[in-house]
Each structure stands twice: as C-alpha cells, then as structure tokens.
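Troubleshooting: if your tokenizer reports a length mismatch, compare against these two reference records.
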Amino acid sequence: MIPEITVAWQTTVAISKAITSALKTVKDIETKEAIAGIQDSLLDVQSKLLAAQSQYEALAEVKRQLEHKIVQYEKWDTDAARYALKEIAGGMFVYVLKPDHAAGEPIHWLCPNCFQKREKSILIKPGVDWLNYKCHRCAFEVIPTAPNYPSNAGEGFDIGTPHGF
C-alpha cells in the first residue's frame, strides 16, 4: 500500500506541477496578449504621430510660402508706387516711372497688362527707326502719335519720352 501511496503522491505532485505549469502558461498567454495589445496601441499612436508630423510639415511649408508671398506683395507695392498710369495716346495707357522716384534710372514705360499681373515689363522699340513700343512678355504694342501725345501728365511731371520719342 505504501508503494501505491507513493505512486499516488508522485502522481499528485506531477498533477500539481502540471496544473502550476498550465496556470503559468495561461498567465504567460494573458501577459503576452496584454503586451501585444499594448504594442498595437503603441503602433497606432506612432502612426498617428507620424501623420501629425507630416501635416505639421505640410502646414509649415504653406506658412513659409504665404510669408514669401507677403514679402513679394510688399516689395511689389513699394516698387509699383514708383509708377503712374498715364495716357500716352488716345486710349493708350502705360505705366510711367515718376521722375522723383527714378533714383538714377532712365524714364521708362511699363506694359499695363503685365503691370496688372504684378510683373514689370519695360516697353521697348523693336527697331531703331520704329515708332511703336512692344512688350516682350505679352506682345502688347503701343504706337504713340505726336498730336495726341500729352507733354504734361497733369500731375506736375512729364511722362517722359523713352528712347528719344
């Protein structure tokens, strides 16, 4: 009977160890599942942080571009104030550099079409003997005629005569 008790005892110990091992395995599985859940949450947070960083960088680029545009607009406004719209022939207008804003530049005319697009384009003569002036950007052309050519702009300054017109 003692050998049977010993075998029973050993069986009980073995079962106890098996149960402990099974419980440990269950705890390990629960722990592993909990860790996996935490890792999934961390990956989700990391993904959201990367998306937020990408949005931040995109917004920072938009901000930089807008700041650049503001600087360009302010620069244009300052430069545009140096010019006045003048009629150089019946119904033909150009922007003329104001003599008191010339700062050493020769008096010149700017294309009114390009000026409205915030671009400076000096009207030039295509040839030495030609009377017309042409914009190299938009092909605007003006042919001032002497009888209609105002000698005074009415604002206290002459509109100038580029290229000895």
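Reference record two:
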Amino acid sequence: MFDDDDFDEDDFDEEELPEGEDSEPEEKLPVFNKAMQIGELTRVIVETFDKEKDIFNMYEQMLTNAYILGAKISGAEAADLYSIRMDNATLIKIHARELLAQTSLCKSEKLCDTEYLDMLRKEIEDFRVMFIEWVKTFDRTNDIKDEWDILDL
C-alpha cells in the first residue's frame, strides 16, 4: 500500500518526464477542448441569470451538466476498454442533451439574454459533431465481456 511518507519530493525530477507530455492526453483532443469551452461559456451565462427568477435552480444544473462533459471525456480517455469508453460516451450524450434542453427552459423563463443561449446551443451542436467523430475512434475489439452484457444485446 502506498503511504505518503514513502514519497520523497527531492527524488522527483520534472525534467525526467518525457518531452511533450506535460499535459494530459485528452487536452490534445478537439472534443475535450470544446467541452472546456462549453463549461466556461455556461459559467459566464449562468452568472448573468436573475437569481430571483431561477426557481428551477438552472444555475447549478447547467453548470453540473457542462462540467461533466470534460470530466467524462477524461474518463473515457483514461479507460482502454470499449465498454467503459462507451459508458462515458453515453453519459456525455445525456448531459449534453440535458444542457441543450435547459437552454430552452432558460429562454422560456427569461433568465438571461437569448443571444447567450443561442451561442451556447451553437457550441453544443459543434461539440455534437466532434463527439460523433471521437466516438468513431473507439476500438470495438479492445473489450472484455462483463456481467451486464449491454453491448451484446
């Protein structure tokens, strides 16, 4: 078992890291970068909400859905098995669609300027196209059968 006392900071040399690997692999993916942009845009938009009108708590719900996109892409990229990657992809799809639906509710409740919401909708559409291309890169042959058998239906 790893114990924090076993780690000696003096033994760690950042220069020993392979060149060009100072960032996480998913940060090089356009779909991940678009997810980060959506998260930031969503944060800026919800900051403009009239808090008194936000009776459905869209502020928190939209932020949650937006931030999950990047986190699940990271999870899928960290996993090697097709089924795990697809599990993450399914969650990404659900949260992106939920965020899209929330823009309609925000419009109807007049929580903010509709131009901001239209901008977010466009970014989500761009993300959807990138997402489809990204999922096509998953290797179906790299998987093991699990006890849920969802992919075998």
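Descriptive notes for reference record two:
- The chain has a mean pLDDT of 87.
- The chain has one domain: 27-139.
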